[in-house]
Each structure stands twice: as structure tokens, then as C-alpha cells.
């Protein structure tokens, strides 16, 4: 049990025991002050080890897991809960959610990516796979190891069900070190999280090539302009993208080797191929799957997104990093601001 919705406690679970799912289970257990949080792990042996050792040795080895978290590899056990946080990587959301019985529940989407096979954002995927669910998006500057350690941060909680849904979810999720802020802009929240991963790869490349801190700051600002362009075209709001789930997370991920996406870019900038940089990794760098489909969507929708296009080119391995950067720097000069619509 966890949180309260009027008189009845909200029973909550987390789908996906990677680093972020495990850290979110920790945050929920702290918010519940003694209630149980069910954590679904795809790997049965991992679920057993979490329960026995209180450590997720595969995805978040540094954290001691709160006593209130119970792991299971039986997805059906989560089927009856009132609220689920979906934290499997974007490419697997559809298949995992489809295995849950479809019934009215709050489903909080926490993956940051675009489905590569379809170009769908996470809420579109979930709407089809779990039509009875009430959707929300949780996104912001949140390195899993820091959240698991109880260090403070703040996130956007964008609720498709407006204030009524927020009133149910916020007490279930919030604690002094984990502060959700209300929004009803689901599209803006999911686009911020998906695009910042692609821009983090680009910033890693700049670091790997040794292009300096000025270049990285310029890239963050021009990358943010691309995020805004895509987000506004999809119906997201500028104020959402300038908040925790957009600019907040962009600044975090573009400036730290704790980011898997930044680290992937760093390796590309240092001359490694994407295949080499990604091989043998059990952890996910979502930007690697999102960049090609994002570049494709931008092209089809006539949106100018040169940084996203460059990251996609680098990942496909058709040109060395230095050439891709040189092409970007030789583009025609333009006005900094978008022309008014
Ligand atoms: N790690 C973070 O700091 C962090 C923070 C915020 C958001 N996120 C987002 O959360 C999502 C999950 O990332 P993570 O860091 O928890 O993952 P992770 O890299 O720690 O672990 C990989 C996860 O993928 C799962 N997986 C692998 N193959 C699968 C399959 N075929 N079907 C279903 N699941 C499969 C594994 O079981 C594991 O849970 C991503 O979208 C990521 O961008 C991560
Ligand atoms: O390690 P990354 O690049 O997946 O980033 C993790 C989180 O999204 C940061 O908010």
C-alpha cells in the first residue's frame, strides 16, 4: 500500500527493474512511509536476488533497497494495483504493457524515448496497449543512482486526467527529496525527455572531439531550439519544455559522464563506432534508438533539426565525427529566433 486517495490507500507498483525502475521504487517506498511497493523484474533470478540481498546487482549495484520494496518476476501480481509506473525502455513498452490485464488504473510513463519501429511517443504506445489506463508522464533531471541515494531532485508529473489524477498520484510519489510539479502537458513532457537524450549524445561527441565548453553551451542552446521546434509542432507547450522535463534534464544530461547517452557520444567523438560503443552493455542509452526515428520524423514533417540529423548520421556510421561536425558548422547563417507564426 502506498499514498492516499481520499480514504483508500493507493496500491502502487513499478514495471521494470532497471536502474530507473529500482530508484523509483525506492522513492515510492520512502513516500509511502512503510507501505509495500511491488517491483517487476523481467529477469526472475534478479527478482530473487533483490529480495534476498536488497541489492539490484545488475542495474543499480550501489544502492541498498528499501525494506518496503518487494521484487517479483510475475507481472500478473501487478495487475490489480491502482497505479503503475512503467519504466521499461521505450522500445519494449508496448510488449510489456500488453501483457498486463487492461483495466482502469493510473499508468505513469517514465521511459524517455520514441518507438523506433513506429515513431510513436510513449503515450500513443500506451493508449493502444492499455486503453483503459489513465496516463501520466513523469520526467525530469533524475540520475537513478542519486535518486536511489535519497539526494533531492524535482520532476514534471504531467497528468492527462488533470488535477483529479494529480491529487491521487502526487501524494503517492512525493517526498521531500523527490518533488513532482504539476502539468497537464503530456506531449511536452514526453518530448522533452526523448529529445534531451539525442542532444546528450551530441554533447558527448563535442567533448570527445575536444571542441571545448563554449561549443557545448552553444550546442545545448541550439539543441533546445530543436526540442522546442519539434515539441511545438506536436502540440506541446513552450513552458513545459523550458521546465524540469525539458531544459532541466537537458542541462543535466549534456554535462555529465553519469549519462549513458553523453558517454555514448563521448565514445563516438573519440573515434569508436556505435556498434563498438554499445556492444556488451546491459544498460540502455535511449538516444541511440530515438535519434534515427527523430531525424526521420523531422525530415517528413519539414522541421529543421540539424543536430538530431547529425547524431543519426553518426550512429549509422556513414561519416566520421569530425566531418559531421564540420558539416553542421558550415550551414548557411540564419536568425537565432524562429519567425513569428
Ligand atoms: N537510469 C536513469 O538514470 C534514468 C533516469 C530517468 C529515466 N530513465 C529512463 O528509464 C527507462 C529505463 O531505463 P533504465 O535506466 O531503468 O534501464 P537500464 O539500462 O538500467 O536497464 C535496462 C532495462 O531494460 C530491460 N529490458 C531489456 N530487454 C528487455 C525486453 N526485451 N523487454 C523488456 N525489458 C527489457 C531490462 O530488464 C532492464 O530493466 C529508459 O527509457 C531511460 O531513458 C533512466
Ligand atoms: O543516463 P541517461 O543518459 O539515460 O540519463 C538518465 C536520465 O534520463 C537523466 O535524467
Write structural notes for this entry.
Helix 7 runs parallel beside helix 10 and helix 7 packs across helix 14 (306-316). The longest helix has 23 residues, at 186-208. The chain is globular and about 60 Å long. It has 2 domains: 2-184, NAD(P)-binding Rossmann-like Domain (Rossmann fold, 3-Layer(aba) Sandwich), CATH 3.40.50; 193-329, N-(1-d-carboxylethyl)-l-norvaline Dehydrogenase, domain 2 (Orthogonal Bundle), CATH 1.10.1040. The chain is of the alpha/beta class. Strands 5-4-3-6-7-8-9-10 form an 8-stranded mixed beta sheet, sandwiched between helices. It has a two-stranded antiparallel ribbon with strand order 1-2. It is built from 15 helices and 10 strands. The protein has helices at residues 19-32, 44-53, 93-98, 122-129, 144-148, 162-173, 186-208, 213-233, 238-241, 244-253, 260-269, 274-278, 287-301, 306-316, 321-329, and strands at 2-5, 8-10, 12-15, 37-40, 69-72, 83-86, 106-109, 134-139, 153-159, 178-183. Residues 1-7 have low confidence and may be disordered. Nicotinamide-adenine-dinucleotide is lined by residues 16-21, 42-43, 59, 87-90, 92, 96, 110-113, 142-144, 283-284, 286.
Inertia-based shape: globular
- CATH hierarchy, class of the largest domain: Alpha Beta
Going across the biggest sheet, name each strand in turn. 5-4-3-6-7-8-9-10
Task: Count the domains.
Answer: 2
Mean pLDDT: 95
Which hetero ligands occur in this complex?
nicotinamide-adenine-dinucleotide, SN-glycerol-3-phosphate
CATH topology of the largest domain: Rossmann fold
N- to C-terminal separation? 49 Å
Number of strands: 10
- CATH superfamily annotation of the largest domain: NAD(P)-binding Rossmann-like Domain
User: Low-confidence segments, ≥5 residues, pLDDT <50?
Assistant: 1-7
- The portion of residues assigned to helices is 40-55%
- Name the structural class: alpha/beta
User: Under the CATH scheme, which architecture of the largest domain would be assigned?
Assistant: 3-Layer(aba) Sandwich
Sheet with the most strands?
8 strands, mixed
Enzyme class: oxidoreductase
Function: Catalyzes the reduction of the glycolytic intermediate dihydroxyacetone phosphate (DHAP) to sn-glycerol 3-phosphate (G3P), the key precursor for phospholipid synthesis.
Domain Glycerol-3-phosphate dehydrogenase NAD-dependent C-terminal: 185-325
Protein name: Glycerol-3-phosphate dehydrogenase [NAD(P)+]
